[in-house]
Amino acid sequence: MIEQKVKQTLKKIKLNKKEKIIVALSGGKDSAVTAYLLKKLGYNIEGIHINLGIGKYSEDCLKAIKSLCKELNIKLHVYNLKKETGKSIVTFFEKNTKKISNCTICGVFKKWILNREARKLKADRIATGHHRDDELQTFLINIFKGSPNLNSNFKPMLDKKGPKFIIKIKPLFFVSEEEIKRYTKKLKLPTVKEICPYRKETYRVETRKLFEQLSEREKENIMKNFLELSKKIKKDKSKMNYCEFCGEPSRNKICKKCELMKI
Ligand code: SF4
Ligand code: ZN
User: Fold this and answer.
1) What is the dihedral of CA 246, 251, 23, 119, to 10 degrees?
2) Is 142 helix (H, G, I), strand (E, B) or coil?
3) What is the pLDDT of residues 54-73, one digit of tens each?
4) Contact, 141 vs 204, CB < 8 A?
5) Would you state the pLDDT for residue 201?
6) How buried is 191 (Cβ within 10 angstroms: 0-12 exposed, 13-18 middle, 19+ buried)?
7) What's residue 95's pLDDT?
8) Domains delineated in the chain
9) Ligand nearest to the CA of 31
10) Which protein residues are within 6 Å of ligand 1, measured from CB?
């Protein structure tokens, strides 16, 4: 079932087996299943992991990823945040006075690093482990935060936003978290079980609880409705700019990552 869903998604986005795909590996089940299935289905993949420097948690993530890549026989690239910027992600969490959530800070860095590193590796696509339930939550969070236009991206492949932008794909877009849990257990994929000690994302926790109260059938219906809704949302056609400091794609003069570096 899960394989069938992923096959259909990859067919829909016309993913070519010759394309080089960099899979963003976090150490968790979602990215492990993404890598496993892409490899099983014959795609040309390599893994990348961003070591955030969160003590034992980061060490355990790296350990799990190394054994996953060995098992799948795929090349692994590791980006060490502290080595590259002189600071671990924890420094940015602690110095943050703007009340930005830890996960948002983390997300900004991860997005920036992934795009740049994947480009350096001459990748055609970046695959992430976002699944159906993540996507349903994000749709609502965008509305809560007053940015419903971001939901025009509610699909398994994001639009190309400019020459320096590597297209992101989400092979698990139609797969539920429960299916991923069962599959990881069945295959005994190496993953970290512990939860990041800095996880703090109020909106996500609340929206997750909200969806947990619904049946599978209701969630599938909401998914269909959100997909229809997203088609009606006006796409942001503004030209992609490039950050004055780092030259990476950015909506503003200075990208969010360079803004955070000032913390
Ligand atoms: Fe970063 Fe949040 Fe993930 Fe922890 S849970 S690694 S803070 S995104
Ligand atoms: Zn920048």
Assistant:
1) -40
2) helix
3) 999 999 999 999 999 999 99
4) yes
5) 73
6) buried
7) 86
8) 2-260 (3.40.50.620)
9) 1
10) 52, 102-103, 106-107, 196, 198-199
Going by alpha carbons, the residue nearest to atom 5 of ligand 1 is 199
pLDDT of residue 68: 98
Q: Which residues contact 144 (CB under 8 A, 6 or more apart)?
A: 203, 207
Tokens 């539920």 locate to: 176
User: Tens digit of pLDDT for each residue in 201-234?
Assistant: 778 888 999 999 999 999 999 999 999 999 999 8
Q: What is the Cα–Cα distance from 47 to 23, expressed in whole angstroms?
A: 5
Partner residues linked to 49 by β-bridges: 78
Token code pair at residue 74: 């795929």
Type and span of the H or E element at 10: helix 2-12
Q: Which ligand 1 atom is nearest residue 106's CA? A: 1
- pLDDT for the residue numbered 107: 93
Q: What is the pLDDT of residue 100?
A: 86
3-state helix, strand, coil in the chain (%, to 5): 50, 10, 35
- Torsion angle (degrees, nearest 10) of CA 89, 35, 184, 226: 80
Q: Which atom of ligand 1 is nearest to the CA of 201?
A: 2
pLDDT at residue 181, rounded to an integer: 97
Cα separations in angstroms, 42 against 69, 133, 178, 214, 250: 15, 26, 25, 35, 34
Positions of the chain with pLDDT lower than 70, given as ranges: 263
Q: What is the pLDDT of residue 185?
A: 95
